Amino acid sequence: MDIDQLRELNMEIKQNISLKNRNTFGIDIYADRLVEYYSIEELQDFIRCRVADGDKSPLMHIGGGSNLLFMNDFHGTVLHSCIQGINVTADEGDNVYVRVGAGVSWDDWVQYAIDSSWFGLENLSAIPGEVGASAIQNIGAYGSEAKDFILYVDCVDLETGDIRHFCRAECEYGYRDSIFKNVVAGRYAVTHVHFQLSHSFRPNIEYGGIRKALEEQGVQEWDLSPQVLRQTIIRLRQQKLPDPAVTGNAGSFFKNPVVSAAEWQKLLQEYPEAPHYDAANGVKIPAAWLIEQCGWKGRSLGNAGVYENQPLVLVNNGSATGADIAALSKAIQDDVKKRFGISLETEVNFVCGE
Ligand code: EPU
User: Which of 24, 139, 312, 344 to mutate to test the pocket of ligand 1 (most atoms within 8 A of CB)?
Assistant: First the structure.
């Protein structure tokens, strides 16, 4: 597709553009073209023109760029959804059903839901990124995951322009995982996500430090409001996670590994103090602990570093390239493997330009 055809489609197109402000790591790489669309129809027009032209040039879709590591320039078209809108589709008994545009900022959506007295998302406050990506990555924090509230996901097939709906079961959700990261990776653009929230506020304060933080503020459980819970979560995150506007990072870089009961027993012999949580298929060990034990907390390798308050987070010390971050990630994975025999899997998605 040439630029004149794209202009006729009335879309926002930028050529040879830096994506530095489009990824929270702040990696300065270039894309041949960035196309931003504001409706399903615009995206469909774009895809149908591409198909009619026989254009097979590389295509990739980004959201807020908060879970990406660009390894090099992207010679192709980067798509970004600017689809907005938060609309109630049904309101029945305790449940409210809401359709949200993929381009809405995740945290704006959480704030909007709480302000509207639609509850459930409080523990997912202050997660960077956009609503479309939340359904792909199954974002999670403090004992909640996006999948707990997603009913179905509206998509456009990037090969045909056709609309396709995925119900929750079809999304094959797992820990920071979905079908969109596996068998159909790269095939669909999420245009809207349908959420089911509740009119009743049922706080979940059992996870990681929430109860303690509330006690410190003198807040009693019976007196807890959704707003106070949200502010508490925001503060907890601010204490542990670097602000990407100041220090480039993509949140947790690795997933927390799950080991078998036998492996756990072996680890326990040597490290009786090792933190752990029960998981459906074994025992979950915090990657932050494994990384700290290997001496990486607060350390750097070239322009990439391990965050001093949460070693699960890798940071751009200023002018890191994707390769710098990847080299640090590999060094950590090698050390954890050597010392504990555990393979750390990355949560961040690596993007290798064509
Ligand atoms: N820990 C250490 N050293 C540290 C920090 C933590 O050993 O310096 C150990 C402690 O044992 C601590 C444990 O790690 O109890 C867990 O730490 P934390 O509660 O900070 O959570 P996490 O498991 O490291 C996960 C998510 C975060 C999410 C938090 C809170 C993953 C990969 N990460 O981190 O998600 O915010 O729980 O729910 O599951 C993200 O996905 O980008 C993200 C930030």
Answer: 312
Which residue puts its alpha carbon closest to atom 27 of ligand 1?
A: 141
Report helix, strand and coil shares of the chain as percent, to nearest 5: 30, 30, 40
Residues 6+ apart with CB under 8 A from 139: 106, 124, 127, 129, 133, 145, 146, 176
Q: Do domains 3-81 and 86-240 have the same CATH topology?
A: no
Beta bridge partners of 62: 80
The long-range contacts involving 147-152, CB below 8 angstroms and separated by at least 24 positions, are 147/171, 147/173, 147/178, 148/120, 149/120, 149/121, 149/195, 149/196, 149/197, 150/193, 150/194, 150/195, 150/196, 151/97, 151/194, 151/195, 151/196, 152/194
Q: Indicate the fold that domain 3-81 takes in CATH.
A: 3.30.43
Of 252, 306, 344, best ligand 1 pocket probe by most atoms within 8 Å of the beta carbon: 252
Q: 248-351 has which fold?
A: 3.90.78
Q: CA angle, 53 as apex, 50 and 57 as ends, to 5°?
A: 55
Asked whether the beta carbons of 74 and 58 are under 8 A apart, the reply is: yes
Instruction: Tell how strand 95-101 and strand 140-141 pair up.
Output: unpaired
Q: At which residue do the structure tokens 């979950």 appear? A: 284
Structural contact between residues 188 and 44, judged by C-beta atoms closer than 8 angstroms: no
How confident is the model over 299-336, as pLDDT tens digits?
Answer: 999 999 999 999 999 999 999 999 999 999 999 999 99
Exactly one of 22, 176, 230, 237 is catalytic; name it: 176
Select 86-240's CATH number: 1.25.40.10, 3.30.465.10, 1.10.760.10, 3.40.350.10. 3.30.465.10
Q: Is 130 a catalytic residue?
A: no
With a threshold of 0.90, does the pTM exceed it?
A: yes
Q: Tens digit of pLDDT for each residue in 54-103?
A: 999 999 999 999 999 999 999 999 999 999 999 999 999 999 999 999 99
Enumerate the domain spans of the chain. Answer: 3-81, 86-240, 248-351
